[in-house]
């Protein structure tokens, strides 16, 4: 049996007028987790609780965790490069200062402007990569509920469907078999 909705929930926020009690702790919250047709209100603080859910990156049912990893890795490696160059610049500057102090005259270091240019370029790339990562996180962050919570969502969903069917049958008058030969009062 395929499930009526996947265990991939997206966070939506409603206005403060539409805040409702959290499904878990009953505090008022504006955050809603949605995996259409299912949705429920939940405090955003619970989203960090690994016992409740784990973060996934996805577009619909297409996983995007690998893309997240590679964007994250790009930012990390550019950060590392920037730190290395900063280190080199500091080292050169302190060596230069020693030489300067020793000789009592300014000393040119031809590599220094080059390193600073390199650093500026790397920082520019890093900022671009972080902006891309942020945009990605905003667009594709999803939450996978812990198995117990997901099962309870599925149960609530089928209960709701059953209730709707009963209401429909009551409205149609088909819930109870008709008894044609009831004695007249
Ligand atoms: Zn709560």
UniProtKB/TrEMBL annotation:
One of its GO terms (cellular component) is endosome. GO terms for biological process: vacuolar transport. InterPro entries: Vfa1. This is VPS4-associated protein 1. It comes from Ogataea parapolymorpha (strain ATCC 26012 / BCRC 20466 / JCM 22074 / NRRL Y-7560 / DL-1).
């Amino acid at each position: 049996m395929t499930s009526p909705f996947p265990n991939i929930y997206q966070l939506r926020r409603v206005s403060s007028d539409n805040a409702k009690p959290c499904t878990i702790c009953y505090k008022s919250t504006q955050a809603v987790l949605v995996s259409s047709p299912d949705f429920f209100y939940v405090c955003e603080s619970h989203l960090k609780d690994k016992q409740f859910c784990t973060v996934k990156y996805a577009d619909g049912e297409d996983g995007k965790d690998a893309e997240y990893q590679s964007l994250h890795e790009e930012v990390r490696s550019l950060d590392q490069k920037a730190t290395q160059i900063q280190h080199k610049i500091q080292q050169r500057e302190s060596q230069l200062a020693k030489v300067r102090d020793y000789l009592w005259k300014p000393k040119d270091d031809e590599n220094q402007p080059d390193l600073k240019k390199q650093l500026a370029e790397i920082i520019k790339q890093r900022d671009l990569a972080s902006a891309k990562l942020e945009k990605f996180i905003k667009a594709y962050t999803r939450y996978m509920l812990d198995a117990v919570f997901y099962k309870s969502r599925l149960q609530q969903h089928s209960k709701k469907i059953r209730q709707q069917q009963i209401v429909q049958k009551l409205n149609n008058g088909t819930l109870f078999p008709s008894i044609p030969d009831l004695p007249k009062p």
